[in-house]
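#help-structures
NK: newbie question, is this the right format to request a structure? protein is CoA ester lyase
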Amino acid sequence: MTNEDGEAFGARSWLFAPGDSERKTEKAAAGPADVVVLDLEDAVAEEGKPGARSTVAAFLAERPLAERDRLWVRINPLDGPHALADLAAVVPARPGGVMLPKARGRGDVEVLDHYLSALEVAAGAERGSTKVIVLVTETAEGMFTTGTYKGAPRMVAMTWGAEDLADAVGASENRDADGGYGFTYELARSLCLLGASAAGVAAVETIHGDFKDTEGLRRRAEKVRRDGYRGMLAIHPAQVEVINEAFTPTEAELAAAQEIVDLFAAHPGAGTIGHNGAMLDRPHLARARALLASGGRA
């Protein structure tokens, strides 16, 4: 997917690491995650937030600039007391991006853009260099604004959350008897996907809470990729390789996509083409090209 500036961003795995643990941040950064999200929000207790800011800022500052592109920071919500302090601490250390939790709509991203611009200029960084991923369904209000993010500054991806949404609506559980998400939370997943598509950015699936359930993670990751998601959040290093594999097109998928592209290239005036007993049209061609692009073969 590309944002309004035409910038492509494709990260399969987004691994959280608690910002107050040097050991866990070191381990996460040394692993194969496409993006490591140093967490200043849910993973850090209230009394530990000032220390976690300092830990994350120091961790970032110690890395070469080229390595920081994949080191992002989840700040605290904009409507709380910590977000500005989080940004003031970490932006001078130039993280690759910021995750904005509990977003209520596009206006929150615009406010964040203003904060980031001022801090980037003050730190001597290029204005606009800090990218943004937005958590869009963690509040009841946010559920109604998932389609408002087109053209939001800096935003390259959208993701969703089920746990904070359950808290927001007063639910005692967000799962059905069979273990799947209830209707409200499946709706949140769909709204995130549709909102990301409308905005032209990547949709990123929420966490799989049971980090020991490797097969369940694999099935879910493969399913949401078929649905249109381009990556997934992870809460444990053991989940990263599974996610990377699930969101990487197989050789068979790439070969089939290339066959479709070649067929249409050989018949440039055709709107539909018969192939293997089915009729292919232009949406099939668009999906084939997108798959090849995600596999680096566009």
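mod (FA): yep, format's fine, and the tokens are attached above. Residues 181 and 261 are 37 Å apart (CA to CA).
NK: thank you!
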